[in-house]
Amino acid sequence: MVKWQKYIPNYLTKSKDEAMKKKYLNFIRGVSINKIGFTGVVLTTSSFVAMIFLELLRIAGVLTNAYIGLITYLLLPTLFVIGLVFIPFGWFKYKKESGKTAKELLDRQFTVEELEKNKLGSTLTRTVLIFTLVNVLFLSIASMRMLQFMDEPVFCGTACHSVMGPEWATYQVSPHSRVACVSCHVGEGVGALIDSKLNGTWQMISVTFNLLERPIPTPVHQLRPSRETCEKCHWPEKFYGSKIKSIVHYSTDEISSPKYTTLVLKIDSGEEVGKSGIHWHIGKSNQIRYASIEDEREEMLWVEVLKNNGTVKRFINKKHTDIEYNYKDVRIMDCVDCHNRATHIYEDPIDAVDKRIRKGLIDHSLPFVKREAVGAIISSFTTADLANQIIQNHILSFYRENYPNLLGTKGESIDKAISTLQNVYNTNIHYGMNVDWGVYPNFLGHKNGSGCFRCHNKDLVDEISTPIKSDCTMCHSILANDSPQPFTYLKNATNENRDSAMHVYLKNEFLEYSIK
After folding, report:
1. Which pLDDT does position 371 carry in this prediction?
2. Does 249 share its domain with 334?
3. Helix segments in 365-410, DSSP class H
């Protein structure tokens, strides 16, 4: 309370509040001229109060469900607008049925004091103006909050859970889990926003009438160009030097013996003389264009290299020169042509187990743990509950039958391995969307798919039948290849090794590249 207010007698304050309340109720009665008008008043008032209440609960963190958000920011504002439309419609209908003029209706519904004009207009006019401003402000805030809510990852992932469940599961454990979905799928600018909302409308219709393909087909052709998305954080100008990547695979023997593949990835973009690497494909000095069969980006029809000096070199797939294929997309190569699963990464079951063993989530000391872990998750089951039960039974029955003592001494490790494998399975396998192992290939590298070899193969040749180069060391130096030691090829080669010549070549190649 302001200091001077305490000197105002209570009866004056009370009478003023009662007068305001009376004016408000008189106005409500006035606009509620019939059942339609009354319904409009009820809809508008109740939706306004409900939205304020739910918004406060969301701000307090009590409500986080996406469906509550849809009610708060989509349903309630819609009801609010419908209520506002009902009020003048009720007046128009009553005026038509009664045959009275608008002035006669105003005289009937409102008092003389409310209709009396002064310098600022009548009380009724001011009241209508105030309510109009409040309505505009309310709808503006509701629209802004709706757009903000629809930009949140939790909305994208859970509002249409049956469809987006697989994408939401993989997003939450991805390297880009702190990047909002709209940063890549919408982009910046009004045009991008409008395109995304139109596309979202069609998706909503597809979900409602079960028109969606299952699984969701890839590639997603309406993604924003990576120049507008990826390169906000990842600058091609900053791609230089090299990066060591150590890959550990475990054998299926009793001790799950580790095997090491160590690569020195050449991530240069080719801006430095003599330092061309993986990101040469998106460097400033050249542009790669290609067309693929059915625009699937898997089997190339032709590939072009455009240099800054204006020269063009084209490689044509000699397997498909006699057949006319339909394609609409002549694509300029960018980040997602290789990093096609940058966020929604579906794992290979063998690699997934190797990764969990290396992280310590699966105890490496458990006998035959690699073999049994892969065997537990490799199959497909009809439901998630059945999968979880069979995975548990598979691991427990193996150790119960073959190593019963471990159930006591290593019981906690076995239970942790089971829960880890169940999590791996449930993240990667989604029955409702027909997502199984291997449905979505990863083009990063070439271990589990065509990847680099979509272009770097003997079938894509130039005018003199020279194929695109496919030397291993163009993109990475090899320091170990499925070897017992992580840096095998840095040691001196011995004549006893059957691959001694390759050993010497790979060591020298790495040393020569390192001193450039």
Report:
1. 98
2. yes
3. 369-377, 384-402, 406-409
Pair 194, 131 in one domain: no
Last residue of a domain, one of 383, 400, 433: 433
Answer whether residue 428 shows pLDDT above 50: yes
CA distances, 462 to each of 316, 318, 465, 466, 468 (Å): 6, 10, 5, 5, 8
Report CA-CA distances (Å) from 27 to 106, 137, 245, 389: 11, 20, 73, 65
**pLDDT tens for each residue of 369-406:** 999 999 999 998 989 999 999 999 999 999 999 999 99
The stretch 57-75 carries a mean pLDDT of: 85
Q: Secondary structure of the chain: what % helix, strand, coil (to 5)? A: 55, 10, 35
Q: What is the reported pTM?
A: 0.81
Q: For residues 453 and 347, is the Cβ–Cβ distance under 8 A?
A: no
Does residue 144 fall inside a structural domain? Answer: yes
- Confirm whether 227 is domain-assigned: no
What crossing angle do the helices spanning 10-31 and 102-109 adopt, rounded to 10°? 140
At a CB cut-off of 8 Å and minimum separation 6, what does 104 contact? none
Phi first, then psi: give them for residue 48, nearest 5 degrees.
Answer: -65, -50
Which H or E element spans position 260?
strand 258-266
Asked if residues 369 and 363 have their Cβ atoms less than 8 Å apart, the reply is yes
Instruction: Tell me the C-alpha distance between 14 and 10, whole Å.
Output: 6
- Name the residue among 260, 250, 484 with its Cα closest to residue 367: 250
Note the helical H segments in 151-252: 153-158, 161-171, 181-185, 190-208
Q: Does residue 66 sit in the same domain as residue 145?
A: yes
Q: Tell whether 459 and 426 lie within a shared domain.
A: no
CB 39 within 8 A of CB 86: yes
pLDDT at residue 4 in the model: 35
Amino acid letter for position 286: N
pLDDT at 271: 64
Flag whether 477 is in a domain.
Answer: yes
Q: Are residues 40 and 131 in the same domain?
A: yes
The whole domain housing 189 covers 153-217
Arithmetic mean of pLDDT over the chain = 87
Find the mean pLDDT for residues 23-29: 72
Give me the mean pLDDT over the 441-468 stretch: 92
Q: How much of the chain, in percent, has pLDDT values that exceed 90?
A: 49
> Is residue 286 domain-shared with residue 385, that is, in the same domain?
no
Which residues, 6+ apart, have CB-to-CB distance to 3 below 8 Å? none
Same domain, 45 and 78: yes
Mean pLDDT of 116-137: 81
Q: Are residues 178 and 325 in the same domain?
A: no
